[in-house]
Design a protein that fits this description.
By secondary structure, the chain is α+β, with helices and mostly antiparallel strands. It has 2 domains: 38 residues; 53 residues. 31% of the residues lie in helices and 24% in strands. The protein contains 1 helix and 4 strands. The chain has a 4-stranded antiparallel sheet, with no helix packed on it. Strand 3 and strand 4 form a beta hairpin. The termini are far apart.
Protein backbone atom coordinates (compact mmCIF):
# COMPACT_ATOMS: atom_id res chain seq x y z
CA UNK A 1 0.00 0.00 0.00
CA UNK A 2 1.09 3.51 -0.72
CA UNK A 3 1.10 5.90 2.23
CA UNK A 4 0.06 9.27 0.84
CA UNK A 5 -0.03 11.12 4.20
CA UNK A 6 3.62 12.10 3.82
CA UNK A 7 3.08 13.89 0.52
CA UNK A 8 3.65 17.68 0.58
CA UNK A 9 0.65 19.97 0.34
CA UNK A 10 0.18 21.58 -3.10
CA UNK A 11 1.09 25.27 -3.22
CA UNK A 12 -2.30 26.48 -4.41
CA UNK A 13 -4.06 24.63 -1.56
CA UNK A 14 -1.73 26.25 1.00
CA UNK A 15 -2.43 29.67 -0.52
CA UNK A 16 -6.20 29.03 -0.40
CA UNK A 17 -5.98 28.01 3.27
CA UNK A 18 -4.11 31.26 4.08
CA UNK A 19 -6.75 33.32 2.24
CA UNK A 20 -9.62 31.68 4.14
CA UNK A 21 -7.84 32.19 7.47
CA UNK A 22 -7.17 35.84 6.65
CA UNK A 23 -10.79 36.40 5.63
CA UNK A 24 -12.02 34.82 8.85
CA UNK A 25 -9.72 37.03 10.95
CA UNK A 26 -10.85 40.13 9.02
CA UNK A 27 -14.54 39.30 9.52
CA UNK A 28 -14.08 38.72 13.26
CA UNK A 29 -12.16 42.00 13.63
CA UNK A 30 -14.84 43.88 11.66
CA UNK A 31 -17.61 42.43 13.81
CA UNK A 32 -15.78 43.48 16.97
CA UNK A 33 -15.32 47.01 15.60
CA UNK A 34 -19.05 47.25 14.82
CA UNK A 35 -19.99 46.08 18.31
CA UNK A 36 -17.64 48.61 19.91
CA UNK A 37 -19.02 51.43 17.74
CA UNK A 38 -22.62 50.56 18.62
CA UNK A 39 -21.83 50.49 22.33
CA UNK A 40 -19.86 53.75 22.35
CA UNK A 41 -22.02 55.80 19.95
CA UNK A 42 -25.46 55.16 21.41
CA UNK A 43 -26.31 57.35 24.40
CA UNK A 44 -26.72 55.59 27.69
CA UNK A 45 -29.94 57.35 28.64
CA UNK A 46 -32.37 59.25 26.42
CA UNK A 47 -33.40 62.82 27.18
CA UNK A 48 -36.17 62.89 29.78
CA UNK A 49 -39.69 63.35 28.50
CA UNK A 50 -41.75 66.28 29.77
CA UNK A 51 -44.34 65.44 32.43
CA UNK A 52 -47.23 67.16 30.59
CA UNK A 53 -47.54 68.73 27.14
CA UNK A 54 -50.45 71.12 26.67
CA UNK A 55 -51.54 71.18 23.04
CA UNK A 56 -53.88 73.77 21.53
CA UNK A 57 -57.54 72.75 21.45
CA UNK A 58 -58.49 70.36 18.67
CA UNK A 59 -54.95 69.17 17.89
CA UNK A 60 -53.62 65.64 18.17
CA UNK A 61 -49.97 64.68 18.40
CA UNK A 62 -48.50 62.60 15.61
CA UNK A 63 -44.76 62.69 16.36
CA UNK A 64 -42.37 63.95 19.03
CA UNK A 65 -38.70 64.93 19.05
CA UNK A 66 -36.51 66.48 21.74
CA UNK A 67 -33.22 68.27 22.34
CA UNK A 68 -31.68 69.47 25.61
CA UNK A 69 -33.21 72.96 25.16
CA UNK A 70 -36.56 72.33 23.47
CA UNK A 71 -38.94 69.67 22.24
CA UNK A 72 -41.27 69.59 19.25
CA UNK A 73 -44.64 67.99 18.61
CA UNK A 74 -45.85 67.34 15.07
CA UNK A 75 -49.63 67.47 14.92
CA UNK A 76 -52.07 65.72 12.61
CA UNK A 77 -53.08 69.06 11.05
CA UNK A 78 -49.56 69.61 9.60
CA UNK A 79 -48.12 71.91 12.25
CA UNK A 80 -44.92 71.68 14.25
CA UNK A 81 -45.19 73.09 17.77
CA UNK A 82 -41.88 73.86 19.45
CA UNK A 83 -41.89 74.14 23.24
CA UNK A 84 -39.25 75.41 25.67
CA UNK A 85 -37.94 72.59 27.82
CA UNK A 86 -37.40 74.77 30.90
CA UNK A 87 -40.95 76.09 31.36
CA UNK A 88 -43.04 74.22 28.77
CA UNK A 89 -44.12 77.41 27.00
CA UNK A 90 -44.91 77.34 23.28
CA UNK A 91 -41.89 78.92 21.63
CA UNK A 92 -42.73 78.65 17.94
CA UNK A 93 -45.40 77.25 15.64
CA UNK A 94 -44.54 76.17 12.10
CA UNK A 95 -47.16 75.33 9.48
CA UNK A 96 -46.01 72.72 6.98
CA UNK A 97 -47.03 73.55 3.43
CA UNK A 98 -48.29 70.55 1.45
CA UNK A 99 -47.18 70.31 -2.16
Amino acid sequence: MNDQSNLPEPGNLRFLRLLVTGLTATMVAGLLVLIVLFVTRFPTAPAPLPEVITLPDGTRAQAFTATPGWYAVVTTDDRILIYDRADGALRQEITVQAE
